[in-house]
Amino acid sequence: MLGLSHAVRDIPLGVAYSVWVGIGATLAFAYSAIFGEEGATPLQVAFASGLVACVIGLKLTSA
């Protein structure tokens, strides 16, 4: 939460929250795939990579 509150100082709230959720979802997926909680199919990895790409795009295009 400290990271989110710090990010809101520099970027709009909508972008900051989207980045926060995207990072959280990607890290949760990566953790479960790495530690064997869930199998990672190529399609899941592609979607997680797409999510990361979208988060980067939001950050790069924020005013």
List key phrases describing it.
63 residues; mainly alpha
Describe this structure in words.
With 63 residues, the protein is mostly helical. The protein contains three helices and no strands. The protein has helices at residues 2-7, 13-34, 42-61. Helix 2 (13-34) runs antiparallel to helix 3 (42-61). It is elongated. 3% of the residues are buried.
Quick structural gist:
It contains three helices and no strands. The protein is mainly alpha-helical and 63 residues long. Helix 2 packs antiparallel against helix 3.
Distance between the termini: 22 Å
Structural class: mainly alpha
Order of helices and strands: HHH
Number of strand elements? 0
Largest sheet: none
Enumerate how many helices there are, as a single number. Answer: 3
C-alpha geometry? elongated
Secondary structure: helix percent: over 70%
Domain unit count: 1
Q: Indicate the mean pLDDT.
A: 84
Strand content: under 5%
Low-confidence regions? none
The gyration radius over C-alpha positions equals: 13 Å
Helix-strand blueprint:
Blueprint: H1 2-7, H2 13-34, H3 42-61
Helix pairs in contact: 2-3
